[in-house]
């Protein structure tokens, strides 16, 4: 008679695998890409009209328009959200490739 692992044991073993890590990586990267897209759209709206009130403004204290106009929001001369639009697809590609079973060179993994 074979003993079947309990649900808790299977969940624990799943969390210890690469599949869990890369699934979490894929989910997080997709959320980050969505956030970068929203911030990039807001940056374009601010470029068109610097006095616009963005939907994320809650009050005078919590005001994302003021943050988006600060020098830190465009450190390299363009909105930082564009860096997210470039970098997150790379992370998504690595996560999908890893979930598909691609074995990367050792130098890449270190």
UniProtKB/TrEMBL annotation:
Keyword Nucleotide-binding found: no
Organism in which the protein naturally occurs: Luteococcus japonicus LSP_Lj1
Main location: membrane
Protein name (database record): Vitamin K epoxide reductase
Vitamin K epoxide reductase domain span: 25-108
Protein's UniProt keywords contain Magnesium: no
Alphabetical UniProt keywords: Disulfide bond, Membrane, Oxidoreductase, Quinone, Redox-active center, Transmembrane, Transmembrane helix
InterPro entries: VKOR, VKOR_sf
Transmembrane segments: 20-41, 81-102
Location(s), subcellular: Membrane
GO molecular function, one term: quinone binding
Gene3D superfamilies hit by this protein: VKOR domain
Lineage: Bacteria, Bacillati, Actinomycetota, Actinomycetes, Propionibacteriales
A cellular component annotation (GO) from this entry: membrane
Topology relative to the membrane: Multi-pass membrane protein
Annotated family: Belongs to the VKOR family.
């Amino acid at each position: 008679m074979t003993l079947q692992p309990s649900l808790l044991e299977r969940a624990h073993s799943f969390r210890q695998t690469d599949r869990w890590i890369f699934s979490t990586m894929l989910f997080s990267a997709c959320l980050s890409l969505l956030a970068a897209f929203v911030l990039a759209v807001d940056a374009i709206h601010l470029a068109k009209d610097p006095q616009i009130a963005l939907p994320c403004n809650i009050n005078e204290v919590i005001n994302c328009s003021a943050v988006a106009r600060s020098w830190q929001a465009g450190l390299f001369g363009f909105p930082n959200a564009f860096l997210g639009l470039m970098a997150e697809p790379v992370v998504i590609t690595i996560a999908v490739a890893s979930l598909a079973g691609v074995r990367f060179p050792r130098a890449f993994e270190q």
